[in-house]
Amino acid sequence: MITPGPGFLLGRKEPGGGSIKQGNINTPPAEEGVGEAPGRGGGRWTAGGPTPTLSPRSPGPGGLAASRGPAMDRSSSYSRTGLHISSSENRGCWYYLKYFFLFVSLIQFLIILGLVLFMVYGNAHAGTEAHLEVTEKRADTLSGRLLNLGALNTNLSKELNITTRSREAIMQLLVGSRRDLDRINASYRQCQVDVNQHENNMKFVVAIVKSEEACRQQLAEHLRNCTAQIQALEEKAKTAQAVQETLKMACNKDKESLMAAKGLVESQFKACSAEKMSNFGEYQLVVGELQRVRDMCAAVDKEKLVSKMEQVWRESLLYKSLDSIALLYYNPEVEKVVHRCRELPRVMLDKVESLARELKVGIEQVARENTELKRQKEAGEKSLAACKEEKDKVLKETQERLQKVHEDCVKQARLALEEKVALQKEKDALKKELEEKKKELALTKGQLDINTATLETCIRTKAQGSTLLPRPPVPAKPAPLDLEALEEFKRRLMNTYQKASQPSGNPASG
């Protein structure tokens, strides 16, 4: 809730002016047309009284009409500057009615607003007095607090001066302490760096020793493997030589057997050739005889033969004599003789037929024998060709086997030689690596001795409170070390590392 004060003013926005003016709540509304011209005039209502004051820049009642009237002549210079006075001849009745209704509406609005404010705030004087009392009490309280703060400020100024002097002294002590602290921190950091470097060097040395032991074991293992491989390769070479000798003997035996088989096949081939020639001669003879018999048989015809024989018989003297002989007396012997003579052609024909059949059987037998000889000849030729092919195949396989055995022997010998050379190279490389590891170990031992001396110097300097001594330079080429001393150092170093790697909480074994 807003408490009304004695100087409570009501904000009012004048029409067309664009600003809020302050006025008393009890001030009656002013007449329209007197006051600040909207948008141009500098005149205003005074907050204290009802008498309006017109600003020298105000154009008067006509200025408002000029700024609002629609009948204003915009072509004149007075209308552009707003300094002219409109003539009453150009103003009609509606012009005054418009402003009359505007002023009436404004007065009604102000009356309603005053009634609303009076209803809301009620008695304004009582609220103003209460607010004034509260303000006076607050002012008294603030005055007391101001006095207290002044006294406190004086005391704080004195304490600040004392504190400033103490601060300067403390800052001097702090600067000195910081210098000491920086020096101590630098020495401590250097000691920490040396300790870390020493620990790293210990780890490096242990790693080098372990790698050297591993290299030695690997070298021994490689040497054993190389020896075993060399022995195995020698045994393989001996076995290969024995196999080669065995294969050579087998090949020689096979060669001898093949040569014997070749001689046998050649003798058989010669016999087959001679037999072929004899068979060919016999074949030609048989063919000639067969052709002659065929020619002879082709000329012989049974019916013709019978007819010719009968004709010959009839034309013969015996047939005529038998027919012409007159039998004086009957004699059975003579009849028999005549009958036999007449049967003689038929008997001869039977004999001829039997001879022809025998001849035909002989011809067929000769033809069969000829066919069998041809078949035997073809079989002999095929057997001879198969023997030749078998001979060539056996010779080729034997040569290929000998060539393969020779190539295998040469290849195994070359592989054995290459493996021997590779093992020798690997052995030399391992020896060289072992020498390099020994040199690195010697250099690391020298660096470790230098770091140990530097660490002892740092610890001794820190204990005495003196400045840190400069570190000795690292020698570029360390002197050669004794191998026995190096082995002793390795053993001591391994024991120290094993003790350091054991946890501190474990009790010592009794």
UniProtKB/TrEMBL annotation:
Disordered: region residues: 1-84
Polar residues bias spans: 74-84
Entry's Gene Ontology BP terms: positive regulation of cellular extravasation; regulation of vascular permeability
Pfam family membership, one: PV-1
Keyword Transmembrane helix applies: yes
Transmembrane segments: 99-121
UniProt entry keywords in alphabetical sequence: Coiled coil, Membrane, Transmembrane, Transmembrane helix
Gly residues biased stretches: 36-46
Record InterPro entries: PV-1
Coiled-coil ranges (or none): 181-250, 349-451
Matching PANTHER family: PLASMALEMMA VESICLE-ASSOCIATED PROTEIN
Name of the protein described by the UniProt record: Plasmalemma vesicle associated protein
Organism: Sarcophilus harrisii
